[in-house]
Amino acid sequence: MKLMKRNIKRGLGFIIILFLLLGFYLCYALVFYGDRWFANSYNSRVRMDGWQPKIIPGDILDRNGKILATTKETKERNPKTDEMQTYYYRSYCSESEKARSIAHVVGFHDPQLGRSGVEAFYIKYLMGYNNSLLERIYQKALLPQERGNDVVLTIDFELQQFIDEIMGKHKGAAVVLKVHTGEILAMVSHPTYNPNSLSGEMEGDKLYNRATNGLYPPGSAFKIITAVSALENLEGIMEEEFICEGKLDLSGEVIPCYNEQKHGNINLSKAMIYSCNTVFAQLGASLGRNNLIKTAESFGFNQDFLFKDIKLVASKLPLKSSVSDGKLGWTAVGQGDVLVTPMHMAMIGAAIANDGTMMEPKLLKQVIGRNDKLIKDFEPRPFKKVTSPENAKIIQNMLKDAVEEGTGKNAKIAGVNIAGKTGTAEKQGENGEWKNNAWFVGFAPVDKPSLSIAIVLEDLPEGQTGGSAAAPLAAKILKKAMELGH
Amino acid sequence: MVVALTGKGCEIMDGRQYEIIALIMRYWFVALVLLIFGRLFWEGIKKNKAELEEHLGHVLFFMVLLALSSFSLLSFFDSKVFDIKAAILGALISAILIFQYNFTKLLFPKFDRILLLTVDTLAILGFIMLQRLKPELAFRQVEWFALGNVALIIFGIFAKKLTPGKRISYALIVLSYILLILPLVLGKEIAGAKNWISLSDAFSIQPSEFVKIILIVVLAERLSKEKGFKDNLPIFAFVAMLVILVVLQRDLGAALLYFCIFMFMYYIATSDWIVILSAVGAASLGSLASYYLFSHVRVRIEAWKNPWADIENKGYQIAQSLIAISSGGLIGLGLGLGSPQMIPASRTDFIFSAICEEFGLIVGFCVIGFYLLIAIRGTRIALNAPSSYKALLAMGATVALVIQSFVIIGGVIKMIPLTGVTMPFVSYGGSSMVTSMAMIGILESIASDKNAEEDENEEDENENEDEELEPADED
Cα dist. B399→A145, A207, B173 in Å? Predict the structure, then answer.
């Protein structure tokens, strides 16, 4: 009986633990994922009913006050009641075709097709679910139609428009960030669609936002991370001399430089400037798996990004504990199984430019309520400390020289000082032909960085590289951004 | 009055007026539930039982307020007509509550009143949600609740007097087999599980619910005799047989529940870790095998791992449940202002999500707390039970109720894979309500038994036990 009483108490203890876990899990899940669940496209509570909307969603504006999305009304015949009625619908940009450039940022809100982009993620504000009790009662009692709040984005529509134009027919994505605040000035994904006439746009991958969802092998652009890892883990690495013979044999795996060019005697800075694969492959092998993964994870790889403002797919650096030196070498030059999104790459560039502090990407600037009352103003949020300011400075100088005299030469244009790293990742197409993904990751101006950029162009023919294709575009975009006053 | 109010095209209350009132009343409901929960929990974990009974009358008053105010609000839910039925139902529920309280207080002064009031509060929340989701079901649920009260009284009187011997045990075992084989032969399939016997079109029962009581009684009787491992072999066979039968019905929830009840009771009776651990190991192997063997198990697991991956099919239930919970926020969207009807099975398995959506997370936590309180009170009753048979019986009933609520709440918030069991006292369902109330009856019976024939010698010991128990209660 005595034993039994002890056991009964233990049983209660076990039950109490179970219920505490239940409570903690519920809190944890709602704090970290609650807003995402609420914003899900399948949440019909915040779906706008075109015929009898309870609440009309607010407008979406760019940082200069240009209207990117608004709710309009027409008189139409309601198929259900067969009467002429007011029909509400979302309309994007005053000139319908221009809406293409911001389609992936703003997204769409359609009674049948659901929601995406800002239209989905900020639905809480757009539908006024953040309003106070008094405001909601006021609107219900005294206004003829309830209306949600307006949302001001950090996007600069003019820059967005410019990038969309110069990317032309290229597939790919480009992201421009402000390095100190993490504000997203532009986020373009190609091919794009027109949210004003969705019915014809559903086929293909037009709706796919490559900037936040597209996972690409970063190619040589990954060398930034390998270099940071070397600076942190290998002492005296800056003084060390390497010998490049055009290719390197790492336990059976041959890693060549581009066109098997021999760089001869070379140090880390020069290796970065000329994007020498053999040196970085050696670095990868001598760093080892654990150091490389540690540095990459401090940059946010292999991590669920739970940002307040955007949904970003996790970047991947899968390395088994039994990884071979050859695989490590390939990973260190960004070819192995490394996958990264353009947005994350822009964040990495921004972190280097911001002396080692990575900011959370920020898309939501303000929420504006009835009578232009400012309801919410969002502060920049630091995300991670990726490396020391000293190391960041060293990398900044390497990237500066890479544009000055190295692979990024084509990014050198009059009027702006740019630093950056190119990258070219090869992949075999369906018909067996080789195609290139071209990268440029960089920042400007060199001495006081304020902007960072990541651009990736898909499916370029052989011979077109990050240096020849992506770098010039990046330079033009950065120049335009500086002209616009950022 | 009704006729005057329901004149053609005459709206008695503008839809927006209802919304405004519901928005404001959210705070009132949260405050009431918090108050009830706070009072019950505070009294529930107190050591001293002497002055306890005096303080609980006003909790009943708050519960009646909760029922009356919410049903009055819901009677205006459809803005076209004043729903007099809802108002009447609110009054009826209040009457049942007051009657139950005073009746049991008069005839069974030794009943554990806190336990009873906790159960009543959960039932009220269930009535409100059902009235909001489907008014016809709310009325039937109140009927079930009344029937459940009858079961409570019957078990409250007789459970302490019955100490089944070997013969009755065997009869019960046979009865449980029959009950579980019946639906396999006659049953109809509901939501992939064949665990119902339908007696008429509108009336079907779920035998696996009633078998829980048999399981508890038989286990308590068999395990209370101190015996070795070998003597317990028939019990293993009995439990294994029950689990296999419900697995054949594809009622995974019941299988899990039977297994947990057995584990708890066996450990409490024998403290035999080896058997427990090997049973857990065997069960894990079994569930691993069923993962590869049965597609419906795989579907459940995949829906649990990532409901958003296949949100239109497999993940739909859980995704909608999570969306509903996250929509509610802390104080809810307001009674009648959410869309809990979007969640499949929102009246039965997913009623917790519906409550979280319209009443908010605070009330959701209170619901979890109410079940914890049932566990605490049930354990206390078991600790004070006069014999090891009764202690086991009390603990079995407690574990059955509490683990079942843990399994379903954990399932709908995606903490554990979803297994379809009802939420005791809250979900719609007659079999579940009557069984759960009967188990409360068992607990109350043992509570009053102990108090009636209190042994002076044991008193001191119990006081000490209670002191040891205290730190665990504070959470």
Answer: 52, 51, 20
Preferred mutation among B327, B387, B404 to probe A, highest tally of A CBs within 10 A:
B327
| Other Cβ atoms within 10 Å of A136 Cβ, number | 18
Please give the Cα distance from A353 to A180 (Å, whole number).
Answer: 9
Nearest CA in chain B to A137: B20
Burial class of residue A114 in the structure, from the number of CB atoms within 10 Å of its CB (0-12 exposed, 13-18 middle, 19+ buried)? middle
Q: What is the DSSP string of B149-196?
A: HHHHHHHHHHTTT----HHHHHHHHHHHHHHHHHHHHH-EEETTEEEE
Chain B residues touching A11 at Cβ < 8 A: 264, 267-268, 379, 395, 399
- pLDDT tens-digit readout, A98-110: 888 999 999 999 8
Q: Are A424 and A258 in contact (CB under 8 A)?
A: yes
For chain B, counts of helices (H) and of strands (E):
18, 3
Give the C-alpha separation, A285 to A301, whole Å. 19
Domain segments of chain B as ranges? 2-142
| Closest chain B C-alpha to A123 CA, distance in angstroms | 12
B232-259 per-position pLDDT tens digit: 888 888 999 999 888 888 888 899 999 9
Confidence of residue B89 (pLDDT cuts 50, 70, 90): very high
pLDDT tier for residue B5 given thresholds of 50, 70 and 90: very low
Q: What domains sit in chain A, N to C, each tagged with a CATH number?
A: 219-364+381-483 (3.40.710.10)
B365 chain-A contacts, CB cut-off 8 A: 23, 26
Confidence of residue A322 (pLDDT cuts 50, 70, 90): confident
Query: Length of chain B in residues, anyone?
Result: 475
Segment A270-308, tens digit of pLDDT: 999 988 999 999 999 889 999 999 999 999 999 989 898
A33 touches chain B (CB under 8 A): yes
* Angle, CA of A207, A209 and A214, to the nearest 5°: 125
Nearest residue of chain B to residue A32 (CA atoms): B326
Q: Give the gap in angstroms from C-alpha A382 to the nearest C-alpha of chain B.
A: 26
The span from the CA of A97 to the CA of A99, in Å, is 5
Q: Which residues lie across from A74 on neighbouring strands?
A: A87
Could you give the percent of chain B with pLDDT greater than 90? 48
Distance CA A451, CA A403 (A): 16
Contact yes or no for B347/B133 (Cβ under 8 A): yes
C-beta of residue A18 within 8 angstroms of C-beta of residue B404: no
Q: What is the per-residue pLDDT for B187? A: 67
Region B48-74: mean pLDDT is 82
Residue A359, beta-bridge partner list: A382
Nearest to B56 by CA among B32, B34, B39, B38: B39
Dihedral class, residue A345 (left if φ above 0, else alpha if ψ from -120 to 50, else beta):
alpha
A150: its two tokens? 């307006």
**Which residues partner with A248 through β-bridges?**
A255
Residue A439's pLDDT is what? 93
